[in-house]
Write a structure and sequence with these properties.
This protein is 32% helix and 22% strand. By secondary structure, it is α+β, with helices and mostly antiparallel strands. α3 packs antiparallel against α4. The longest helix is centred in the C-terminal third of the chain and has 19 residues.
């Protein structure tokens, strides 16, 4: 944990950022790194989608060029917000952070069954409340601003 060398620059490790900004303490962190190297050198997005019919929120990750968000939209989900990451691994880490909080810290199960999401992704769902929406937005935005160097948007822009 700490600083690491990336492309000739010293960069603070994501776990250090999260601990420093108080989003997680080191013992709570479950680091998730892809088991293969398919994410290296690729950018990605973290997206937040909502389904009024299912009364659920969905957090997800899509790599550049993926039609993942469109898959959800074809099944009635609406894109609420997205954050672009230069490194797909960062997007995967922040998705896992949000899910870790919801599953392990709060003990909340997925809000949607597998049968209601034929496009997949039911395990990344939670009951749609304004508080859940705000928390997800703040966690992802804080991580995004730390990794990407700027802060953009506010929860008021998520509709």
């Amino acid at each position: 944990m700490g600083l690491e060398l990336q492309s000739g620059l010293l960069v603070e490790h994501p776990k250090s950022i999260l601990a420093r900004v108080g989003l997680v303490t080191v013992p709570q962190w479950r680091a998730w790194i892809p088991s293969n190297r398919s994410s290296e050198g690729r950018s990605g997005i973290v997206y937040l989608a909502g389904s009024q019919e299912l009364w659920a929120l969905k957090i997800g990750v899509a790599s550049e060029g993926s039609e993942r968000v469109e898959d959800h939209e074809r099944h009635g989900w609406t894109l609420l917000a997205s954050w672009g990451f230069r490194h797909l691994t960062d997007a995967l880490i922040v998705e896992e952070l949000v899910l870790d909080r919801w599953r392990n810290l709060y003990g909340r199960p997925p809000a949607v069954s597998r049968s209601r999401m034929p496009q997949g992704g039911h395990t990344e769902t939670m009951r749609w409340t304004k508080a859940a929406e705000r928390e997800i937005f703040e966690v992802v935005s804080t991580f995004w601003s730390e990794r990407e160097g700027v802060r953009r948007g506010s929860i008021d822009e998520v509709a």
